[in-house]
Amino acid sequence: MTRLGGQIKINRRDVRGQRPISTVGMLVAVFAVSVGSIGLSVFGSSFGPADIASATGETRAVEAVTTTGRQGAYYLPAGHESRTLPLLVFFHGTGGKGSLAILRLRSYAEQKGFVVLAPDSVSVAGVWTIGQRPGDTTEDRNHVMTCVREVMAAPGVKINLARVLAAGFSVGGNAAAYFATHEAIFTDLAVLHGHVAPGTVGFLRPRS
């Protein structure tokens, strides 16, 4: 793990050795994208009308629906049709919803130029159910990947496949680590104020 000022970045060696990643005190992740490093102080600071006003793109609910009626949301920054953009897939914490996470993330997505997807967990309690053994498939895994495919197939959306980050807050951090090491689409991993259980980590290795 590398500390950049007040920011914390998860390095490949933290995942490669399959050691648990300790809880971090700062609710900050770093995503190295083509436009530079994005600092996401998502839950550590308040947001208000200024954040909403700066998000001039488009927020959409995902069409995919879980058996519990939950969906998620994504944000497309203004002018996305003319650009190939990185993708951030954000996993909420306990009790969370993707639509609420988007409210916090969209101003950063607008400023830095990336698409952000925040799927809902299947559980109405906001917890994630992930596989425990190789080959395990859960409804959460199916729903998240359906959401990812939906965003990538949306008209006018062009995703930079070299910059796809899985990031999560609290229990969502464990889910992010699971997806980043089991699904080849993800190139980067960031855990915000959470931990990664050793059994969560798969064979794939994100870049950061």
What does the model show?
The protein is α/β, with parallel strands linked by helices and 208 residues long. The chain has a single domain, classed as Rossmann fold (3-Layer(aba) Sandwich). The protein is 25% helix and 25% strand. The chain has five helices and ten strands. It has helices spanning 12-16, 49-54, 98-112, 139-153, 171-180, and strands at residues 2-4, 7-9, 29-33, 36-40, 58-61, 72-76, 85-91, 115-119, 159-169, 188-192. The strands form three sheets. The protein has a six-stranded mixed β-sheet with strand order 5-6-8-7-9-10, sandwiched between helices. α3 links the parallel β7 (85-91) and β8 (115-119).
Give a summary of the structure in a few sentences.
This protein has helices at 12-16, 49-54, 98-112, 139-153, 171-180; strands at 2-4, 7-9, 29-33, 36-40, 58-61, 72-76, 85-91, 115-119, 159-169, 188-192.
